[in-house]
Amino acid sequence: MKRLVILGGGESGVGTALLAKQQGFDVFVSDKGQIAKKYKKVLLENSIIFEENKHTEKDILNANIVMKSPGIPDKIALVQKIRLKEVKIVSEIEFAATYTNATIIGITGSNGKTTTTLLTGHILKKAGFNVGVGGNIGDSFAQLVAQQNYTEYVLELSSFQLDGIDSFKPHIAILTNISPDHLDRYEYNINNYINSKFRITKNQTANDFLIYDADDEAIANWLQKNKINAQKIPFSTQKELEYGAFLRQDTIIMKLTTEEILMNASQLVLKGKHNTKNAMAAAMAAKLLQVRKEAIAESLLDFEGVEHRLEYVQKINGVQFINDSKATNINAVFYALECMDTPTVWIVGGVDKGNDYTDLLSLVREKVTAIVCLGLDNQKIIETFGSVVNVIVETAGAEEAVKVASKIAKSGDTVLLSPACASFDLFKNYEDRGNKFKEAIKNL
What is the Cα Rg of the chain in Å? Predict the structure, then answer.
C-alpha cells in the first residue's frame, strides 16, 4: 500500500486526504499549526490519521509520495529533507488530475480569477453542463473529484498551486492579467512570478487553448519571448483583434470562426473595464465548449458577482458603502478606484506584501477625498498619500474605520473598503475582514 503524507490540514490537504483514501492510499495528514474544527471533523469521520501543532519527521519521511499544501514555501527545512530523500512532492491539483478524465478549464491571474471562474461556471451550469467549480475558491479540486463525477471542472488556480504541477494540463487555460503580487515568495523577482503563472500552459498541446489579455504588457512580452503549444485566443478592450474577443463601440464582439456580436458591455451586471475583460474570457471559454452565444449573453446578464469583490453593501444617508475586501494587492485597488464615479473615502491597509503605492497616485488624486487606515503599520500609506489627500486617519478595527469613514463622507460619496494588503494583522482572512466591515455598516 502506497503511503501518502499530506503537509497542511486545510482545504487542499483534507480534499487530497479524502481522494487518496478512496484510491487506496495509506494516508497521514500533518499540520504544524492547529487544524480548523470543520476539517478535523471530516478527518475523524473518514478515519484518516492526522497530527496537529507539529510535524513528526519519522512519520513524514517514510512516505512514498508527499502532497504539500500550496501555502507552504519550498524553502522550509522539512521540504528540503523530503527532497533529499528523493520522495516525490506533488500539489493537490497534480494529484487530483490523475483521477479524472474530465475537461478542465484552469483560470489564473493576479486579479479577476475568482470572478472569471464563477462566471465561467455560471454560464456552463446554465447551459446544462455537469460542471464542478472550485480549486483556489470553494471546494478543493481533490474533494470535487472524490465526491462527484463531473464532466467539466472550472478551477481557479493560484501561482502557488501552479508551482507544484508536473503533468497537469487544462484543456482551456485563462490568464486574466499579471501584476506584482506575492513577490515575497518569488525572491522579489517579478519574472519568477510571471513564469509561475505561465506554468498553466506548460503541458498544453496544439489541441488546447490559452485565453489571455492582449492588453497586458507582462503577458505580451512573455508570449513574444516564449513559444507555447496551445492555440492562443486573445481578448482586448483597447483594440480590435483579428481573432478572439474585443470591443467595437462598447459592443463585445467574439471572433473564432465567424464574427458574432455578443452584447453591449454596458448591459453587464458587473461594472468596470476589468469585468468586461472577465466576461470576455468566460465567454470565449464557453464558446470553445460549443455554448450558443445567446445562452452566453443571457448568463452574463444575470450573474450576481462575488462576495467581497466590489460588493455593494448599502446606502446610508446618501453614502454608498462598497466592500472590496478581496482586493489584497495594488492592481485590485487600481480596478476598484477606476470604477468609482463619486468622491470616495478609501479604507486601506493591513499586512503589506511589498506594495508600491505610487501606481495609485493619479487615481487617488482624482477620486479620493479622504483615507482611513486599517492596519497596524500604516507608515507607507501615510508617506505616499500625505501630500495628495487632505484627510488621513488611522483606526484600529473595522468598526472604528466604518464610523470614522461615515463621519467624513458627505451625501453622494462612496465609502470603499479596498485594503491593498493581506488581512492577517487584525482579521482571520479577507472574508472575515469583509464580514466585519459589513457588520459595522449595519450597526451604524
Answer: 22
Please name the residues in contact with 148: beta carbons below 8 A apart, sequence gap of 6 or more: 132
Backbone angles phi, psi at 387, to 5 degrees: -90, -5
- 414 DSSP β-pair partners: 320, 344
CB 13 within 8 A of CB 141: no
Q: Which of 99, 105, 160, 161 is nearest to 133 (CA)?
A: 105
Question: pLDDT per residue over 302-348, tens digit each?
Answer: 887 777 878 888 899 999 999 999 898 898 898 889 878 899 999 99
The C-alpha atoms of residue 105 and residue 88 are separated, in whole angstroms, by 26
332 Cβ contact partners less than 8 Å away, ≥ 6 residues apart: 110, 111, 324, 326, 418, 420
**What's the CA dihedral at 55, 56, 59, 60 to 10 degrees?**
40
Query: What is the C-alpha separation between 29 and 27, in angstroms, rounded?
Result: 7
Cα–Cα distance measured from residue 429 to residue 433, given in angstroms and rounded to the nearest whole number: 6
User: Over the stretch 416-436, which tens digit does the pLDDT of each residue have?
Assistant: 999 999 888 889 899 999 999
Which pTM value belongs to this model? 0.77
Q: Is the pLDDT of residue 181 over 80?
A: no
For 302, the grid coordinates are 444575470
Beta strands 311-316; 319-323: pairing state:
antiparallel
Would you give the distance in Å from CA 368 to the centre of its chain?
A: 26
Using a pLDDT cut of 90, give the percent of the chain over it: 76
Query: Is it the case that residue 195 has pLDDT exceeding 90?
Result: no
